[in-house]
Design goal:
GO terms for molecular function: serine-type endopeptidase activity. Belongs to the peptidase S8 family. Furin subfamily. InterPro entries: Galactose-bd-like_sf (IPR008979), Kexin/furin (IPR034182), P_dom (IPR002884), Peptidase_S8/S53_dom (IPR000209), Peptidase_S8/S53_dom_sf (IPR036852), Peptidase_S8_Asp-AS (IPR023827), Peptidase_S8_His-AS (IPR022398), Peptidase_S8_Ser-AS (IPR023828). Serine endopeptidase which is involved in the processing of hormone and other protein precursors at sites comprised of pairs of basic amino acid residues. Responsible for the release of glucagon from proglucagon in pancreatic A cells. It contains nine helices and 20 strands. The longest helix has about 40 residues, at about 530-570. It is of the alpha/beta class. Helix 3 runs parallel beside helix 6 and helix 7 crosses helix 8. The radius of gyration is 27 Å and the shape is globular. Strand 10 (about 360-365) and strand 11 form a beta hairpin.
């Protein structure tokens, strides 16, 4: 029954112009109405956001608020405006930039510089000022610092993602060679004062290097996540690498570590940058420069000697942006652990308009959407701070050795070596893992050409992770991979019980041969995670609805075909 509303107008402002002789209405009361505002929820005018920002480069910081600047895609940004609108600007949080130093005299950084938490491990003094070169080679750290903590509303350069946070400079890259003790000292510097460590560096991105942290640095990282921030854990943010399609970030032991949050980048129209490396350990993405040669498509930030730049780029630019978003979340909830931050990244990152021509978006066994390049999507500061406010610390973490194959298995071109491990994930034991976080495949393998090796692993719930892609510049025929921990985050939240499948083969035109000597499956996760159950229920509900719609569509098509058939006969 449809009911007209023409006789229900007594609470509206009715003027005589509405009443004609033909209008048969019984008007009992006429009230004057006072106008008041209403706003669409989830929508804020860009002009409203701009009002209080006087910084000259702010309008060019498309990764903060993307209105289509520099040929970008409107709306493709970090959604910091929502977080700022909720009052979170990074206040009380300290981010350390581990790099080639910081120009802490820069007028856009000086007010937010944390001298107490800063140190120069290259020169062994408390003043991490960049060493001068004619080509400004040591501008890297200063540019990264500005992305995080550049002050707002001071008419200088742009605005940091967490513009009221404190930034510390840890100078450790500017010496003839790196040492384990310098890395370890940097990563463990003042872990009760520094909340977040941002690293935009790693092993050489030449497509043929396999390298990672040494013994002291590994111990420093382990101590950081276990003891830093009063036991809540230091948060390590790592750039995934700039080796492009010639490299694989699972060959970088820093970016692929469980203890770091590996960040890849997207450009301002949503595509992957040409220098982006792909790997299954990447957790999420932020932004770097655009592909088109628009002079304003780079990342706008601070530069050496009080200058500003529009030309910062690479995954070097992506990691500090992520550190800034995490600072906003930590302000919203200072009790977040290092694992909480990873869970929040998985749950609140968005596909948005990110896309790649090679790697498509997929869903894992519990319905979480991921991409081999972008991880779980672009970080969403607004969503993250809102979830962080109500977040309850995740349950205790457990580790289970699910199984190990130690026999020698030959690998030949033209075929695949397929191995399986069936596991109950330590069920019935204290270290039982029911909900996955990280999964490691510790592999010892070599080949006549390491760069042609390709390794995939499929979980019991059917999620395939590309553990190693081909690297065309890697000619190694001797070293191979020795107990190398290939890591995936793509099975996050899944039940690990069942059969895991490892596929190893060669790709390329030339015939190759090799041998796999070990595959040990390591499971890391929790015994309870209530939010995963809710995600599964929502996913199953959507699947059921989708299947119902498909059936209805098929039925409609069948009816239409029948009608057409009948009409044609008549």
């Amino acid at each position: 029954m449809i009911q007209t509303r023409t006789n229900r107008i007594s609470l509206f402002n009715v003027t005589s112009s509405f009443l004609t002789p033909e209008t048969q209405l019984d008007v009992k009361n006429v009230l004057d109405q006072e106008g008041f505002g209403r706003q669409k929820r989830g929508y804020r005018s860009i002009d409203e956001i701009y009002i209080k920002m006087t910084d000259p480069l702010f309008s060019k910081q498309w990764y903060l608020i993307n209105t289509g600047q520099a040929d970008g895609t409107p709306g493709l940004d970090l959604n910091v405006a929502e977080a700022w609108g909720l009052g979170y600007t990074g206040r009380g949080i300290t981010i350390a930039i581990m790099d080639d130093g910081i120009d802490y005299l820069h007028p856009d950084l000086a007010s937010n510089y944390n001298a107490e938490a800063s140190f120069d491990f290259s020169s062994n003094d408390p003043y991490p000022y960049p060493r001068y070169t004619n080509d400004w080679f040591n501008s890297h750290g200063t540019r990264c610092a500005g992305e995080v903590s550049a002050a707002a509303n001071n008419n200088i350069c742009g605005v940091g993602v967490a513009y009221n946070s404190k930034v510390a400079g840890i100078r450790m890259l500017d010496q003839p060679f790196m040492t384990d003790i310098i890395e370890a000292s940097s990563i463990s510097h003042m872990p009760q004062v520094i909340d977040i460590y941002s690293a935009s560096w790693g092993p050489t991105d030449d497509g043929k290097t396999v390298d990672g942290p040494r013994e002291l640095t590994l111990q420093a990282m382990a101590d950081g996540v276990n003891k830093g921030r009063g036991g809540k854990g230091s948060i390590y943010v790592w750039a995934s690498g700039d080796g492009g399609s010639y490299d694989d970030c699972n060959c970088d032991g820093y970016a692929s570590s469980m203890w770091t949050i590996s960040i890849n980048s997207a450009i301002n129209d949503g595509r992957t940058a040409l220098y982006d490396e792909s790997c299954s350990s990447t957790l999420a993405s932020t932004f770097s420069n655009g592909r088109k040669r628009n002079p304003e498509a780079g990342v706008a930030t601070t530069d050496l000697y009080g200058n500003c730049t529009l030309r910062h780029s690479g995954t070097s630019a992506a990691a500090p942006e992520a550190a800034g978003v995490f600072a906003l979340a930590l302000e919203a909830n200072p009790n977040l652990t290092w694992r909480d931050m990873q869970h929040l990244s998985v749950l609140t990152s968005k596909r948005n308009q990110l896309h790649d021509e090679v790697h498509q978006w997929r869903r894992n066994g519990v319905g979480l959407e991921f991409n081999h390049l972008f991880g779980y999507g672009v970080l969403d500061a607004g969503s993250m701070v809102k979830m962080a406010k109500e977040w309850k610390t995740v349950p205790e973490r457990f580790h289970c050795v699910a199984g190990s194959l130690q026999d020698v298995h030959k690998i030949q071109s033209g075929g695949k070596l397929i191995l399986t491990i069936s596991t109950d994930s330590c069920h019935g034991k204290d270290n039982f893992v029911r909900y996955l976080e990280h999964v490691q495949a510790v592999v010892t393998v070599n080949g006549s050409r390491r760069g042609d090796l390709n390794i995939n692993m499929t979980s019991p719930m059917g999620t395939k992770s590309i553990l190693l892609s081909c690297r065309p510049r890697d000619d190694d025929a001797k070293v191979g991979f020795d107990k190398w921990p290939f890591m995936t985050t793509h099975t996050w939240g899944e039940d690990p019980r069942g059969t895991w499948v490892l596929e190893v083969g060669f790709q390329g035109d030339e015939p190759q041969r090799g041998a796999l000597k070990e595959w040990t499956l390591m499971l890391h996760g929790t015994q309870s995670a209530p939010y995963i159950d809710q995600i599964v229920r929502n996913y199953q509900s959507k699947l059921a609805m989708s299947k119902k719609e498909e059936l209805e569509e098929e039925l409609d098509e069948a009816v239409e075909r029948s009608l057409k058939s009948l009409l044609s006969k008549n």
